[in-house]
Amino acid sequence: MFKYDPKSLTADEFINHGEILETLKYADENKDNMDLINGILEKAKPQKTEKGTICRGLTHREASVLLACEDPEVEEKVFRLAGEIKDAFYGNRIVMFAPLYLSNYCVNGCVYCPYHRGNGGIVRKKLTQDEVRAEVVALQDMGHKRLAIEAGEDPVNNPIEYILDCIKTIYSIKHKNGAIRRVNVNIAATTVENYRKLKEAGIGTYILFQETYHKESYERLHPAGPKHNYHYHTEAMDRAMEGGIDDVGLGVLFGLELYRYEFAGLLMHAEHLEAVHGVGPHTISVPRIKRAEGIDPSAFDNGISDDVFAKICALIRVAVPYTGMIISTRESQAVREKVLPLGVSQISGASRTSVGGYTEEERPTDTEQFDVSDQRTLDEVVRWLMENGHIPSFCTACYREGRTGDRFMALCKSGQILNCCPPNALMTLKEFLCDYASEETRRVGEAMIARELEKIPNEKVRNICRGNIEKIGAGERDFRF
Ligand code: SAM
Question: pLDDT for 48-67, tens place per residue?
């Protein structure tokens, strides 16, 4: 029997099955305990202190009680709180990114993923460096500045050297006014040595979804290949941090296991990173299983409704207030609209999940990883965000200024991030409007910039920002706070 210990480096101890079961039991027993629930809500509220506004977050047990509680009034309070916390720490900016699929060769057997090695119905493809270049030019021409690279696990076809070559190529391309200024990496769990190489290559966040925290299900859903090893996968973030990567992104693939189990596991993972490394996850992603070649989402019993999905998003924001939250184009426009005000900080736009998809006129499906629900162009997504009161941001400043890991968290916790995020969002939005936007988007965007500039509280920052925006209009690029 394993004992729960958030500081342990053994997966069975920091994601402890017994502790999760106890948590779910505790949550069931207390889901109508209004005294306890009100106390938890009170604890989660942003508090004004001498050092500024702070948030204490919630433990996995506390957050699990709120998730179990079915009272509509409590739910309403959670939603409101999530929005307040998002506004207090990130303002109304939403960071934009796109995934770039490098290769769908894979030796794993993940039963929910069309890239699994037994799938003969999918075309296998790996980008050459020339093809990477063409994809990046296409992405730059849309206006993207931040990518998440994706690849299947295949030591022969996609060794770490291939990934490193791709990163180098991506950073080297300066097409017209375009540049990819931050490359995040979503590749299979690897060694400390390889994480060190990724760090040296200048990556932003290392992203790895746990898929499921339920060990038995994990092993069943990953029947073959290196990914079958639950420990190696679950302990990957500790190795990444040992390799010097201090921004890591967690995620669960919702639909595989019971969501309450996953939710508790996810928060325990965040608590573990904080306890061991002194810094929690930089981001949390909340993907849900989608239809794909040979994959039918209804074959998985644990799909969650849009309402439960929204509640999970809101509770993640409340429980880990300083962690970014990512929603991909797996979700439709309607669902994205519903969860954006609940604390989402990053979304992808105009994504293609096929290898080489950005250079094709028509959206290709033969190498696709999953169906994309939100198929709008980046220009449309940007305009829609602004029409809904969010500032689309192409900012990559924190990472380029060395504000990663605990330095980023300190900036966030002190509230100082509000002197960086909104101005950086406005300046990078201005670049987008000048270089890539349609006339209509430009019109909406210029009005937003004029409005939002006035809201920057610090006069000096406001004036510098205004001056930089004028310079961008005159052709200069790449300003940042
Ligand atoms: N191959 C890498 C790994 O093993 O971690 C990561 C890259 S994979 C392209 C990115 C993520 O897509 C996976 O971690 C999984 O959660 C998600 N995914 C796989 N199949 C999916 C499906 N049918 N619908 C939605 N998301 C899926």
Answer: 888 788 999 999 999 999 99
Residue 175 has a pLDDT of 96
Residue 209 CA, closest ligand 1 atom number: 14
The token duo for 81 is 């709180």
Cβ(325)–Cβ(314) below 8 Å: no
- SS3 letters for 433-464? HHHCCCHHHHHHHHHHHHHHHCCCCCHHHHHH
Task: List, in sequence order, every residue forming a beta bridge with 347; answer none if it has no partner.
Answer: 96, 327
Roughly what angle, to the nearest 10 degrees, separates helices 439-453 and 459-473? 160
Give tens-digit pLDDT for 264-310. Answer: 999 999 999 999 999 999 999 999 999 999 999 999 989 999 999 99
pLDDT higher than 90, residue 410: no
CA of 87 to the centre of ligand 1 (A): 30
Whose Cα sits closest to atom 13 in ligand 1?
A: 209
Helix intervals (H) in 253-348: 259-277, 306-319, 333-339
CA of 295 to the centre of ligand 1 (A): 12
Ligand 1 first shell, C-beta below 6 A: 112-113, 150, 152-153, 186-188, 208-209, 211, 227, 253, 287, 289-290, 292, 295, 330, 369-370
Q: Which of 292, 390, 389, 411 is nearest to 347 (CA)?
A: 390
